[in-house]
Amino acid sequence: MRSRALRRLARWHWATPAWLCVLAAIILMCLGLAAIDTVRSDLVLRQVIAGIVGIGAALAAVVPSQRQLTMMAWPLMGLCLLMLVVLLLPGVPDALVRSRNGASRWINFGVTEFQPSELAKVAVVLCIASWLRFRRNQRSFMGLIPPLALALIPMGLILVEPDLGTALLFLPTCFTLLLAAGARWRDLGKVCAIGVVGAAMMVPLLRPHQVDRLEAMWAQVRGDTSLSEGIGYQGQLAMTMVGAGGLAGQGETQSRQLLKWNHLPEDHNDMVFAVIAVRWGLLGQLATWGAYLLLVAGGLMTAAQCREAFSRLVAVGATAMLFAQMMVNTGMTIGVMPITGMTLPFVSAGGSSLVAAWLLVGLVLSVGLRPPSRLWREQFAFDDGAAS
């Protein structure tokens, strides 16, 4: 058994661009620890422990073969859906599901609390990749419905929690996977049109605080400061802190004082990008975005080198999920997106988010390390003609 494992390791492709994703994740996690220490030094040790667990989860994700991952995808999705339903069931004891700020997002396992929506991000990537790997019906409009359903079902449950931020990640990731699988732009355009109409119809169903966040964002875009003392307070203060950092930042001591006396809500979590901006200025913001671009480059290069359909889609989907999350978080901090309660991957405080982010990187590394099979199926068609 040991010699078999050693032979398997010897066949792995260790010179893979997937290591760029690992490097970017380590850089971002270290940056996050410094930012969290600026505002909540009592959380640093907990974040370090979560990071160690996350790296362990990434290594565990490397172990299963691609065939084993396809088999694990569907049970994992079932488990995620079950946990998401438990969060919404009436009468569940507070000891198991504890509501915070009117949202039921966490399940208490005794030693720690876990956010099922974070694991659902991994499950959606694996399931959609598994569904698309041998199919060509995504080249038609009707063929888009099953993979979209795989994204919409957990997305709907997460919206009810409510967790608008996490729910926003599923459709962009699904669309990216469909494009990578050869879906036609015109078919995806039809889906987008239907989605816009559906989103408009759902506005009356949004909770009051969600509507308030949309109104606050629209006021920011217009330059209207009338809501800055009310529903737009957090967004306006976040933009003020971003601007206060200037080019090179205020340094550690001055940043601590600025953030302490301005009382930026969720500065260690959702608004950690504002902390980076205050402490390291525009240069720190660019460095953060650069690390994410390094991660994206590593993920896409890994996908480009992969011959097998499932593995390529996993690399694309995991990269798209992390990039979409970064866009939502930094977008809401600089005032171009509504405040949605979204963490910044690898940077924000939060064990579930950090472990899930490392799991996604582990999947990309798994794809990069494994050599291509000697026999593989032709992957996807991208021409505008009929599917063959």
Q: How would you portray this structure in words?
A:
The chain is mainly α. The protein has one domain. The chain is built from 15 helices and 2 strands. The chain has helices at residues 2-11, 18-39, 44-62, 66-88, 116-132, 145-160, 164-167, 170-180, 185-202, 208-222, 233-244, 251-262, 272-305, 309-333, 351-369, and strands at 107-108, 113-114. Strands 1-2 form a two-stranded antiparallel sheet. A hairpin with a 4-residue loop joins strand 1 and strand 2 (113-114). The termini are far apart.
Q: Rg from C-alpha positions?
A: 21 Å
Element-level helix/strand string: HHHHEEHHHHHHHHHHH
Give the distance, in angstroms, between the N- and C-terminal Cα atoms: 44 Å
Q: State which percent range the strand residues make up.
A: under 5%
Largest sheet: 2 strands, antiparallel
Counting DSSP H or I runs of 4 or more residues, the number of helices is: 15
Can you tell me the residue ranges where pLDDT is under 50 for at least 5 consecutive residues?
Answer: none
Secondary structural class: mainly alpha
